[in-house]
Amino acid sequence: MNHTFILVLVGKNNMNKKIFFIILLILFIKTIQAEINIETASEQEIKAAFIIKFTHFVKWPKKAFYSNKDEFIIAILGKHSFGNLFDPFIGKRIFGKRISIVEISNIDKFEHAHILYIGPGEKNNFSKIFNKINNKNILTIGDTKGFAHMGCIINFIQKKENIGFEINIDAINKTNLKISSELLRLARIIQEK
Q1: pLDDT tens figures, 94-139
Q2: Does residue 95 belong to any structural domain of this protein?
Q3: What pairs with residue 116 in β-bridges?
Q4: How many domains would you assign to the chain?
Q5: What is the tens place of the pLDDT at every residue in 59-79?
Q6: In sequence order, which residues have a C-beta less than 8 Å from that of residue 102 and are 6 or more positions away?
Q7: 3-state SS string for the chain
Q8: Which of 139, 84, 88 is nearest to 113 (CA)?
Q9: How many CB atoms within 10 Å of residue 180?
């Protein structure tokens, strides 16, 4: 059963933003086909859910799918602790494309990815990674303090007991990706210096 929720927020009140974030997080997790209990979900389960749900708030240009006509590729670079959390999504469809999860250890192997998750251990390779994908239509997602300031589009952050994310506006503008205003409102906005 599908439900549609409409939440109208007035003003720029932080409490409204927090309530909206909690509702969106609950909806993110509830709409995922893998069963995740929000009260007992691990940090990695929540991050995996975010990575999948970010796709609903980002628009890729048509040319991003020319080389992968039937695949939507999520590449995971470096060591991570997701285990098999993405397995329920493999083969499911998004934008009419079959989701493929590819674990990679070499930065030369992700050119055709639509999403590139960059593990925390890749901090020393960051400039090399971004030189390789500069101006490509790849949604980069990091999980290390400072990654958004270094050019990553979305970076997970710890906010007290919650998981949040920051979005680098300048990094988005270097691609042809479009991120919805709903997602931008939930993020801490970063601009490169």
Answers
A1: 888 999 999 988 777 777 899 999 998 888 888 888 888 887 899 9
A2: yes
A3: 75, 140
A4: 1
A5: 999 888 776 678 999 999 988
A6: 73, 74, 75, 76, 109, 110, 113
A7: CCCCCCCCCCCCCHHHHHHHHHHHHHHHHHCCCCCCCCCCCCHHHHHHHHHHHHHHHEECCHHHHCCCCCEEEEEEECCCCCCCCCHHHCCCEECCEEEEEEEECCHHHCCCCCEEEECHHHHHHHHHHHHHHCCCCCEEEECCCCCHHHCCCEEEEEECCEEEEEEEHHHHHCCCCEECHHHHHHCEEECCC
A8: 139
A9: 12
Residue type, position 5, single letter: F
Cα gap 171→189, rounded to integer Å: 11
Phi, psi for 90 (deg, rounded to 5):
-60, 125
Cβ atoms of residues 165 and 185 within 8 Å:
no
Q: What is the CATH number of the domain that holds 112?
A: 3.40.50.2300
Q: Model's pTM, two decimal places?
A: 0.79
The answer to whether residue 26 sits within a structural domain is no
